Amino acid sequence: MLRRAMLILVVLAAGIAGAFALASYSSAPEPMTENQAPAAERANPLLTPSPLPYGAPPFDRIQDADFKPAFEAGIRQQLDEIAAIADSAEPPTFENTLVALERSGQLLTRVNLAFNGLSSANTNPTLQALQEEIAPKLAALDDAIFLNGKLFERVEKLWGQRDALKLAGQDLRLAEYYYRRFVRAGAKLSDEDKTKLKALNEEDAALAAKFTNMLMAATKAGALVTSNPADLAGLTKDEIQAAAETAKARGLEGQWVVPLQNTTQHPALASLTARPTRERLFNSSWTRTEKGDANDTRATIAKLAELRARRAALLGYPTHAAWSVEEQMAAKPEAVNAFLARLVPSAMANARREASDIQALIDQQGGAFKLAPWDWDFYAEQVRKARYDLNNADLAPYLALDRVLMDGVFYTAQELYGISFKERKDIPDYHPDVRVFEVFDKVGSPLALFYCDFFKRDNKNGGAWMDNFVYQSRLLGTKPVVYNVANIAKPAAGQPALLTFDEVGTLFHEFGHALHGLFADSEYPTLSGANVARDFVELPSQINEHWALDPKVLSHFAVHYQTGQPMPQELADKIRRAATFNQGYALTELLASASLDMQWHSLPPGSPAPDPNAFEVEALKKAGVDASIVPPRYRSSYFLHIWANGYDAGYYAYLWAEMLDNDAFQWFKENGGLTRANGDRFREMILSRGNVSDYAKLYREFRGKDPSIEWMLKRRGIEAGN
For residue 215, which of 7, 21, 497 has the smallest C-alpha distance? Predict the structure, then answer.
């Protein structure tokens, strides 16, 4: 996933960032060192450009207390820079207005990107409190920029003169970006309506920050805790040991803790043999934010949906979805809804057949119960094993994390793009689990830094994502500093992390996003790298997943961690044959969440805040999704993507991009597959381009035609119209 957080909205040079995170954090006080001296006695390292290679954040010097004064300084500086542009007595020119806007906010960008990295992956109560304090202030700054009448006059004038000025290429795209950005932000509103809009924006930012912190707390509190080891029957020895160590870290000596994932379903549900334990774990996930306590998010999300509808109306749009989708490749909510509606019948038909197969197995085993959501993964795994003679336990020894990363993810990038990697232990990181690599281009020239942080922690947000600490820009003379974060269960001390094949796919996916950032080659930071539409940004990530099953790639990384023997060809063939298994379920849970998102953000203005539970039931029914068979991947009340991560009316993007990635990968297959020539072409025509052109045009130039849904359905083994 590509993270887009509310803080970044105000930083002109940075369009993407990680979501906020919450955790309980404590440590014993240590003697004060030089780097822990009171702020008055030391220089704030955030206030000056980093002296580290590539401008990487000096995490060894940054203290929590540094962020607030740095944010305040950054806000003041950008306000001064904006005032100088808007109040200039000189006629507007491309350089003194648009380029000046691109140069503004560099201090705030630096602070914001470092803060978002920590607050999403290694947070604590101090950062949490600051995030809630600073979010509305940054929303106000955003309004101070984009609702500045004098500044808009200059931008509008330049846009009107674009032909006379002979703007072209990235210059023209930048002018278009700013003009549309100002208009969509409300620059043409009356002063009275601007005041109303500012209040709505600040409230949205504050509620989104609050939601994120509530969700993280609820997810931690919702973990399965047991003092009976029999409850964990079916888990591996290493998984049980990891649960014991998690409990110990939480002060629950002698117990076991299975933390919740960010999604509705949980990997452990495929293994736990005790049905009551599975039910308990599922319900803990399903109701994590609906317990009537301080972390119950229902009132918050209802309010967010209601105020977004009001804001859309103020801006002249019928719904928030209409406003949000306008800048995407899909362009209109009608196109999104038609796309989803086309998929639902086929997905549900396949899901019902899968449910029938599972129910037959339950009946055969004398289960005497009807299939429930907490049963699906457990019995589906048995069906998979019976049908394909494949289970995750057979695969895990061949999927050691380090081998997958070095000999799979990195190897694929080397084969396709000619880049290489060297670990840098001299670059300070923010946690012992983090690794840093320098990336070199095909001629051996320095290209970027890449951080990876893969293990789950209580003070880390759920899921997996990519983001930047530094954005590439020829104008600013910066090279990219990119990171990937995941939530893989940390193995017991001295043991390797053995992955599921889904987790292998996650590593390839997130590194696809990373490549989008690493290969950025734009003049302007606003147009650089992954600063593109949501339904286009998932193309680089999802197409990279395909390479995990490429015979050359799989054979290179799938090696037994103990014996060093390669994965048997028979087992590799089973993985490929099983790739279409359970895809009715997998597609339906995505469609359910995407439909919820679109309906939440299609509320007409003036509608009262709906009851989230009743709304969800009706929305799924309207979408044609039977939640009793397939619950949504994310329930409304813990749907971080849409309430705080910038994917509002945008979760469909994963499915839209799936259409693109399967269609584009078909081009690779038609042209020789894993070759440097193909990789260089994809890099040149997609990965390096950023937001320099209309997305449909970019895609057509690469593919030679518009995308077809055919290859998406074929990859999932789903026949259209079923």
Answer: 21
Distance in angstroms (rounded) separating the CA atoms of residues 650 and 321: 8
CB neighbours of residue 695 within 10 Å? 21
* 510 carries an active-site annotation: yes
Strand 435-440, strand 256-258: pairing: unpaired
Q: What are phi and psi of 612, to 5 degrees?
A: -60, -40
Residue with tokens 């709906």: 610
Among 387, 383, 385, 389, which residue's Cα sits nearest to residue 371? 383
Instruction: Work out the angle at residue 640's Cα, subtended by the Cα atoms of residues 634 and 645, and round it to the nearest 5 degrees.
Output: 135
The enclosing H or E element of 643 equals: helix 640-644
The pLDDT tens digits for 271-298 are 999 999 999 999 999 999 999 999 999 9
- What would the DSSP string read from start to end of 576-617? HHGGGTTHHHHHHHHHHHHHHHHHHTTPPTTPPPPPHHHHHH
Q: Find all residues with CB under 8 Å of 99, minimum gap 6, and list them.
A: 475
Type and span of the H or E element at 468: strand 465-470
Residues 6+ apart with CB under 8 A from 440: 419, 420, 421, 422, 446, 447
Smallest CA-to-CA distance from 60 within 33, 24, 38 is with 33
Q: What whole-number distance in Å separates Cα of residue 6 and Cα of residue 194?
A: 19
Reference 258, options 220, 209, 293; nearest CA is 220
The stretches of 87-190 forming alpha helices (DSSP H) are 100-103, 106-121, 125-146, 149-160, 169-185
Give CA–CA dist 38/373, Å, rounded: 53
Domain range summary for the chain, segments of one domain joined by + = 6-28+37-196, 222-285, 403-536
| Cα gap 606→603, rounded to integer Å | 9
The tokens for 210 are 């609050």
Query: What is the CATH topology of the domain spanning 403-536?
Result: Collagenase (Catalytic Domain) (3.40.390)
Amino acid at 682: F
Among the options 102, 510, 616, 658, which is catalytic?
Answer: 510
H or E stretch at 64: helix 64-86
Residue 229 and residue 246: Cα distance in Å, rounded?
Answer: 14
pLDDT for the residue 720:
61
Pairing of strands 481-488, 446-455: parallel
- DSSP SS3 for 284: helix
CA pair distance 623, 345, nearest whole angstrom: 10
Name the H helices within 186-297. Answer: 191-221, 237-249, 275-286
Residue 150: phi and psi, rounded to 5, are -65, -40
- 592 and 630 in contact (C-beta within 8 Å)? yes
Residue 105 one-letter amino acid: G
Burial (CB count within 10 angstroms: exposed 0-12, middle 13-18, buried 19+), residue 367: middle
Per-residue confidence (pLDDT) for residue 259, from 0 to 100: 94
What CATH class does 6-28+37-196 carry? Answer: mainly alpha
Q: Is the pLDDT of residue 722 over 90?
A: no
Residue 493, amino acid:
A
- When mean pLDDT is compared across 14-23, 50-59, 165-174, the lowest value belongs to 14-23
- In the chain, the percentage of residues whose pLDDT exceeds 90 is 86
